[in-house]
Write a structure and sequence with these properties.
hpI Integrase, Chain A, 3 domains, 3-stranded antiparallel sheet, 17 helices, 8 strands, elongated
Length: about 425
């Protein structure tokens, strides 16, 4: 294993250098030796160097790392700078000895590794909606920028540049972070296969732009209590039962669509979230392990569901909010059906259109759990709010709803503390 430098002159430069080199050879009495190209290559090289120096022409140069892999196969890698060549020499030596080195000639491209990763994800029965999202990340963001790059050529600075390029092109930070997570997963899968020795994307991060993120507001993102009352007063049948459940149990739209009667315990006044329906109307597990949870129901929810169960269409899945034929209802169909309900309750924007989508009622549930009892809320601890929402981490709960938690009377506390200190 070695590092060496190779220099040469471009053809256009040699045309300028050769006459001057020949003149130098003639002046030194070595013209005969100069003309014998086969026997006197070293001598000719000396005159060419002297002529180039005289004319101010610099030779081209590259640094070559020459090494053999664990199987004894010889490989050559070239670099523009000595520093890069030495760094590669040192790292490849470690990888070869550890048996994890993949030569550039055998390294797959990012696009090829992405296809292998997607196939692996599909084989592991990942939700079809999630798989479609991964494919979109690869097709729209990863392949157009670095799809042709060999895995062995990727570097951490290069991945940082990839992330910066997404943001510069107008990709939102939340989406850019998801794409970066997909890229990290591609490299992790490639590392598992032995196609790359390390995941150079692991340390790359796209920070949340907290300054540009607007906090959820009651009356804009979160329905106000009086709006919920008007909606429940004007809704009937399935849609009243659905709005009551969404607002007072906080289920995600996919969880509402996948909810079964066997998951509703009227006697215990408990609702169990055990499955959800994705955008393709396929039933699967909740979003995360924390999504599988039990939520207590108040009398209003119990009575609404008991009443709706008598009229609910029967189907083989035993769904709580099915279509008229007992099948899984599409998200868009639910929104379309709720539109006249919101308009009748005058829960509309300035243009007279429905003010909220289905997820807004989950926001209301969160705010209701958080609000003080004197304000009509449940005043639950943050950990309980996280559990009822099915959040995977308390961080997500605080990032989304932290500003809604009641504050103590800071002024009174400060005054008491000052008095105790200065008395």
């Amino acid at each position: 294993m070695s590092v060496r430098k190779r220099t040469w002159f471009a053809g256009s430069d040699l045309k300028l250098i050769s006459p001057e080199a020949e003149a130098l050879a003639a002046a030194a009495g070595k013209l005969a030796a100069w003309t014998d190209k086969r026997r006197n290559q070293k001598l000719r090289g000396e005159f060419i160097k002297r002529a180039a120096s005289k004319l101010g022409i610099q030779p081209k140069e590259i640094w070559i790392v020459d090494y053999s892999d664990a199987q004894g196969e010889r490989h050559i890698q070239t670099f523009e700078r000595q520093k890069e060549a030495k760094a590669f020499h040192d790292s490849v030596g470690v990888d070869v000895r550890a048996g994890v080195h993949t030569p550039a000639s055998k390294s797959p491209t990012v696009a090829e590794a992405a296809e292998q990763w997607l196939a692996h994800v599909e084989q592991n029965d990942r939700d079809r909606a999630t798989l479609a999202q991964y494919r979109q990340h690869v097709r729209k963001h990863i392949n157009p920028r670095i799809g042709t790059h060999k895995l062995s050529s990727l570097t951490t600075p290069g991945i940082n540049a990839f992330a910066d390029a997404m943001l510069a092109a107008g990709t939102s930070r939340p989406l850019a972070r998801k794409v970066l997570v997909s890229l990290k997963s591609i490299l992790r899968d490639a590392q598992r296969r032995g196609s790359v020795s390390q995941n150079v994307a692991l340390s790359v991060k796209i920070k949340t732009d907290k300054r540009g993120k607007r906090k959820l507001q009651v009356g804009i993102d979160i329905p106000a209590p009086e709006e919920i009352k008007r909606l429940l007063d004007s809704a009937t049948g399935k849609w009243r039962a659905l709005l009551v459940t969404a607002s007072l149990c906080g289920l995600r739209a996919s969880e509402l669509r996948g909810l079964r009667w066997e998951d509703v315990d009227i006697k215990k006044a408990e609702l169990n979230v055990r499955q959800r329906a994705n955008r393709y109307n396929e039933i699967g597990s909740p979003k995360s392990h924390a999504g599988e949870r039990t939520i207590p129901m108040g009398p209003g929810v119990v009575n609404a569901l008991r009443e709706w169960k008598l009229a609910c269409p029967k189907g083989e899945r035993g769904l709580v909010f099915p279509t008229s034929t007992g099948k899984i209802d599409h998200h868009k169909n639910i929104l379309r059906a709720l539109e006249p309900v919101l308009k009748a309750a005058k829960v509309v924007d300035k243009d007279g259109e429905p003010k909220y989508a289905l997820h807004a009622f989950r926001h209301f549930f969160a705010s209701w759990c958080i609000n003080r009892k004197v304000d009509g809320g449940l005043e639950l601890p943050a950990k309980v709010v996280q559990e009822r929402l099915g959040h995977a981490s308390i961080t997500l709960t605080f990032d989304t709803y932290g500003h809604l938690f009641p504050r103590t009377n800071d002024t009174a506390e400060l005054a008491a503390a000052e008095q105790a200190l200065l008395a």
